[in-house]
Amino acid sequence: MNEIIKNIIYYYSLGMFLYFLIVNLLYIIVIVISLDRLKKTVKINSGDITAVSDYTKPISILVPAYNEQATIVNSIQSLLALDYPQFEIIVVNDGSKDSTLHEVISYYNLRRIDVELNNQVPSERIRGVYSSFDRPNLVVVDKENGGKADALNAGINVSRFPLFCAIDADSFIERKALIKVAKPFLKYPETIASGGIVRIANGCNIENGRLIKASLPKKMVERFQVIEYFRAFLTSRVGWESLNSLLIISGAFGLFRKSAVIKVGGYKKTIGEDMELILRLHKAYIKEKIPYKISFASDAVCWTQAPDNLKGLKSQRIRWHRGLIDSMLRHKEMLLNPRYGKVGMLSMSYFCFVEMLGPVIEILGYIVLGMAIYYGILSNVVIYIFLMAFLFGVLFSYSGILLEQLSYKRYRSIVDICSLFFYSLFEQVGYRQITVWWRFSAFLNFKEGSKQWGSIQRKSFTKGS
Known about the structure:
The protein has 465 residues and is α/β, with parallel strands linked by helices. The chain has 13 helices and twelve strands. It has helices at 2-46, 72-80, 100-108, 148-158, 177-187, 220-242, 258-263, 273-287, 310-330, 341-356, 358-374, 380-407, 414-444; strands at 59-65, 87-94, 111-113, 126-131, 138-143, 163-167, 171-173, 191-200, 205-207, 210-213, 253-257, 293-304.
């Protein structure tokens, strides 16, 4: 029996070693690509005198809102102050149970208006539309609850302009972010979607929906998330965008060609509606052999509230991973399918075998480690695996921080920068294992997972929020 267990441990350890080796080599390649891409992007942007022109298309900003009374007015204030030639703001109240609708109507003195709806994508019944003479570019839609995807569809049906930007109600974008995220549509006519970078607002000095100074939050759990966001956006998304194989544009800040989204049927009611939409866009345009581009604007910044406690973080991470699983299953025919080119062969493979199945493989690795210690057969291979996982984890965190400092330098305090490097060490011990377990648990009750709104407790955007 001991011999069988020993063989299981040995061969699984060997398999894990090869898996981590391949994955880490892939990470290094992506980091190198991202570094080169960011250097070029920063150089181009620093000398780019193009801003707006007669060719700049007007944008409909869609803000789906469910129980967002704490932040909704601040969010609208920041959006109204955006530097962009022509835009409208459409706040979609998705049957909130709090005073979200009342807060907006009261603050902006809105009245009910008659609107002819263009139902091009499905959504729940719209109960009323509100606007005012003072703010003609602000529209509030009140509808029956249907989830975030349904709220976005309702916004699309009410919108007037050829491009729409989806922004979370608990987020705000920088004054010139809309111009920056729209640039790919000016430079590349085949662009159908463009995403911005999402940064954590916790701890920052924010006044009237405007960032005054970027600072690190105080809590350890929040600082770990700052590091995670650097890795996700400045390495992963920059790298995949360079291959035109980006599979996700954050639901917090994304710009889309409305005709393209309508072409694929709008948003679907799923927990991972942002990734699922991008996969459908890839699939449709590749099948029909239509040239297209899905871009990532690393200088277009959206600031969002992150969970400041483990309970909120757990809910968020389980929801995110269920969304990933759901999207992968819905479009499994694209996986390793040469018909879909780099999207099917590279990015789908990465998201399936690394992002989706990675937590399962890692949890099994911890079990193998425990068995090896229990039976007294801990081999060098097992030790190398976990040492490699720790060192490469730190390396990738450091890479994300360095890419930030080499490019945009939003955190200028030496203390903040040193703190990020310091916390990167501790992120790999304890925090990583907790988040891996949460992602693994998303598999255990996946079918029971909610396909509706997921939320954290919102706080008003105030100084040092």
